[in-house]
Amino acid sequence: MLPLKTLFRKGLPGLNLICLSILSLFSCSTTPGQHEPTVSGDVEQLPFVARVVNIPSDSIEMGRVALIVEVNYTDLQFLKTAYGYRAGLDYTLTITPGQGLEAKKVIDSSKEIKLSSFEQTVSRQGIVRIAESFDVPVGTYIVSILISDNNANSRGGLSHQIEVHDFISGLTISEPFLAWDSVHTFTADKLIPLRKSNFDQDFFALVFVGGIDPAQMLSLGYELLDNRNEPLFERNLTIRPVNRSLLFSLPLPYKKLSVGSTTLKIVARHNEQTVASSLNIRANLGNHRRGDRNYTTLIGPMRYIMNKQEFEELQKATPEQQTALFNAYWQARDPDPDEESNPLLEEFYNRVEMANARFGWTGGEGYATDRGRTLVIYGPPDAVQNSRRAGSSTAYEIWSYYDTGRRFVFIDKYNDGNYLLLSDSGD
User: Fold this and answer.
1) What fold characterizes domain 47-166?
2) What is the pLDDT, as a whole number, of residue 39?
3) I need a labelling partner for 92 at 20 to 30 A (CA). Which of 7, 25, 126, 309 fits?
């Protein structure tokens, strides 16, 4: 059997033609006055995922920016030593006020990973987690993350704009984190891995609410919603707060998650004010028994591999019809129907999950971004280059695919971490 990457490209009739025509709708040529950055030397891409969240600080008119960065063991180069296997990461975290060019705060550090066996180095569950935080005055900031494997020629980077609040001046709610257990104090080691998509037990959402008047009651409601905004689970609670800011651990039932994406929405009401926060929780195909699967949340990415008429029919169908159409589509493209698993389907949704994990960290679906769409259609690039134009703060990312000769250039036009497709040299 051909490798999955080759199967995916060759095994779906008309896939390349459909993908190329779809991508061409979104690609753009370099416009007058815009120039691609000059770069030299290929650097392999180091995949990682990250969350940047505003949480309470201990000081008035200050907010804390918490950063969680995770790299899979399988994406690192481990070297054998006399005592086992060793890998290392170097990372730089910066936070810059508004559109300023000078970093306000910088963390330069490294992390060493020591494992006793080769089996640990290739474990899909193995991750390196970096957790750091900045206390900064209230305001708007750009957070940038640069990370490199010091045993290999690979690196990666992300940037994200965040509005920092102090959790004292007015009612404020943080973005939620997920944890396996209820906690009284926020610590990164209690969090569920950011890429986690196979849930087999109940879990908790951790969320901060601040700017509370202890003399007034606080109402907190939360729910799980499917892709049609239909509630799958909901719960409400009313408490008399004891502090001006509180950390809540909200229990969630894993059996209520949809396959694909489920939205967790949290709403706090207090003293005639209302604030809300949300998080997309992703569950893969193995999260439920085959007969229990709800496919409505899986159809979005299929716009990249179906023709317009097929996709519109799938979109407009009832959930029951969508399940039948989904199964029929992938059964017709199963290279080995005698096997229970379909490697093309698994490769496709592995790419979707990778895109969501890497490019959905600012909210929304990662596969719907320009880089996410390119990753789903073409797979991970063979090399990624990061660059800035001389005398400019504009960041570029260049993806190269050696076997097809394609080269995609993305630009962080608004300095918010959402890279837009600038050009595709393979057209």
Assistant:
1) Immunoglobulin-like (2.60.40)
2) 40
3) 126
